[in-house]
Known about the structure:
By secondary structure, this protein is of the alpha/beta class. 32% of the residues lie in helices and 26% in strands. It has helices at residues 50-57, 97-107, 114-123, 139-151, 169-185, 197-203, 234-248; strands at 6-19, 22-35, 39-43, 65-70, 73-74, 82-85, 157-161, 189-193, 206-210, 216-221.
Amino acid sequence: MAISRDLLRVRGLEKTFSSGSDSKTVLKDISFDLAYNDSLAVVGPSGCGKTTLLLMVAGLLPPTEGAIWLEGDEIKGPSKKIALVLQHYGLLPWKTVGANITLGAKLQNIGISGKELQETKKELGIEALDHLYPAQLSGGQRQRVALGRAILLRPSLLLLDEPFAAIDTITRERLQSGLLAVFKRRRFSFIVVTHSFEEAVFMGRKILVLDNRAGIRTVLNNPDAGDIAFRSSPEFFERSLELRRVLEDLP
Length: 251
Ligand SMILES: Nc1ncnc2c1ncn2[C@@H]1O[C@H](COP(=O)(O)OP(=O)(O)OP(=O)(O)O)[C@@H](O)[C@H]1O
Ligand SMILES: [Mg+2]
């Protein structure tokens, strides 16, 4: 396999779910690249295959056709280089926040310094929650702990499935900024699936729009993403509007 400067390379991806004589092609002919230290937002109507795409990139679901390469190696199963944060957090209810956040790294024998742990907690605003159990947290706090746990795995690629859904706007914007602060300090790329135009425009340096016909509708270039000042600029509102129009126009 040729070495590429892209971290991730997706080519001709297709996923068909079959049960008995029924089959449904959810994604077809999906191709895109993601560079190192870059970000991609994935948007599209409910049921168009966003989570399916993330699961395939995570190596948890095999494609029906096509292939995905990470740093030149074909993805055929889960990899330590990829961390996935699903919508439903996946925290262990019988462990405290302090234990939950370091659990993944411990399982993978990744040494984390006290400084790194403190910095990560601070960036995500969860430094005071160590002694609590997941049931004692709000949805937003649980999401942050799940995010912290994934970041401490030091992945090359972080996959986020609607990470900030069901969180109020102000907290959501703080979390987006917190994630971007971590992103700037460490070298990783991320793919974020979202239903929010603003989140896509704020976070994705490329925005992949999927439609209900199993394909990519368009890819928007959004090079200003990730810059805090961008959020309050006229360009930000223009691009959000552009994205809204594309989505409203989908079949
Ligand atoms: N294991 C499966 N078996 C059969 N069909 C599936 C399976 N997983 C997903 N699907 C179907 O594939 C389609 C895409 O599902 P997916 O969860 O990827 O959508 P999504 O874009 O993430 O939607 P949402 O925005 O609601 O989260 C849906 O029609 C779903 O019912
Ligand atoms: Mg989904």
